[in-house]
Amino acid sequence: MRYLETKKARIEIIPMIDIMLFLLVFFAMLTLRMIPTTGHVTKLPTSSTAVTIPPPKLLVEISADGSLLVENRVLTAPQLTDLLRQRGSSKTAVTIAGNETASLQQVMSVIDAIKAGGATEIGLATRTAANK
Q1: Regions of the chain where pLDDT drops below 50
Q2: pLDDT value at position 13?
Q3: Does domain 46-131 fall into CATH 3.40.50.300?
Q4: pLDDT score for 58
Q5: Which of 69, 126, 52, 58 is closest to 91 using CA atoms?
Q6: Residue 91 vs residues 5, 10, 84: alpha-carbon distances, Å
Q7: Are strands 127-128 and 46-47 parallel, antiparallel or unpaired?
Q8: Domain boundaries in the chain?
Q9: Which long-range contacts (CB under 8 A, 24 or more apart) does 63-71 make?
Q10: Is the Cβ–Cβ distance between 96 and 125 less than 8 Å?
């Protein structure tokens, strides 16, 4: 009689393979930094000659109160200089994203701190005049 025969238990591995492949892709994207990091909302100044540049190695944000945000940390200008010196590379591309209310003196002090740290590639983030 076939009714009384016991069937051998099977473990289905196809769903487990799907989950493992999903985790592999997720961690590969996370490792390669393909998932963009969230930044702070700043009102960038506008420029009619704005061009697209490659993503910076270091983004320095000047907030409305004049504080510097670097890698989600609030730093002073001397601390920014020390951070760049620790990185050691003169090819570190630094982009300054200043708030539209930031003064020219604040921007110049950040540029001075970046140059004192040894970085030579400095960019200013703006938005095009049509994106107001």
Answers
A1: 132
A2: 86
A3: no
A4: 83
A5: 58
A6: 73, 57, 11
A7: parallel
A8: 46-131
A9: 63/99, 64/99, 64/101, 64/102, 66/102, 66/103, 66/106, 68/110, 69/40
A10: yes
